[in-house]
Amino acid sequence: MHFSTLISFATISSLLYSALACESCSGSAKNLHRREAEGGEGGEPGFTYLGLTGPVDWNQFEGAQSCGDGKSQSPINIESTMKISAYGDVGEYADIGATGFNFTNTGHTVEVFYKGQPAVLGGVEYELQRFHFHTPSEHRLDNEWFPMEVHFVHQGRNDPSKLAVVGLFIDTNEENTSDPMMARLATLLQSIEKPGETVVATHVPLSGVRTGITGAKKFTYPGSLTTPPCTEGVSWYVSNTILDVSISDYKIFKRVLGYNSRNLQSGPGQQNVVDFAAQFLPSVANRVASKKQKRTARRFSA
Questions:
Q1: 3-301: what fold?
Q2: Which H or E run contains 75?
Q3: Can you give the residue ranges of the Alpha-carbonic anhydrase domain (predicted)?
Q4: What angle is formed at CA 96 by the lines to CA 90 and CA 101, rounded to 5 degrees?
């Protein structure tokens, strides 16, 4: 059986769990309200990571049909044999100094709105827009999940329609130490534990991130935003550099973020996992069919 098919079968159980999440899970999802999508577009109100408004239902939102039928969706399993970015990628992110930038609990993640820092990815000039965190990691590396993942979201400097996201895995370590960025943000995070709260992030070192982008090996593939509207055409660069986080700092992030990770998707060009699951789960099939009927009705009434 083809590996991607195995991934799809494994995803069915994840989708089923999401769709039928028990009431005891609601405590983990209660803070998941509204968040801007990764590329900066307005996110859909009400989407969550569990239950009836979890990933299995994201394509029900207006303009988010790619979540259910797109064939280049993210995240995916990164295999060490995948294509490596052949360009001299550079992330020239300066350390955040005394002026600082907003660090916000959006209700779906915690996000630093650090704009304007230059980066060259795949030979294209970008500017950093923001970075945010997921627990656990959204991507896998050779089928291995990590406790956390950070996404640095970029917009094309000369073409704002171009989006690129750099992902770095975050893991605990035997020395029980944290990357300087993680240590500083964990301290600040205790001031924004509730959705909607913001603190000004000052004196945040980014040396570990610069190392993870400039000169590091990065796996690249064409994917999508990992939240509604799941827009495709996003250039992904997943670094093999892993940032450290101590157990105590990880617990702070985990307490605030809860579970905010989209289930694994098929590889680029392959069948969408929601479409695949619809073959086996009647409830998913009914929701997909209902969404398609609504789109058809709108076309004929236009």
A1: Carbonic Anhydrase II (3.10.200)
A2: none
A3: 45-293
A4: 115
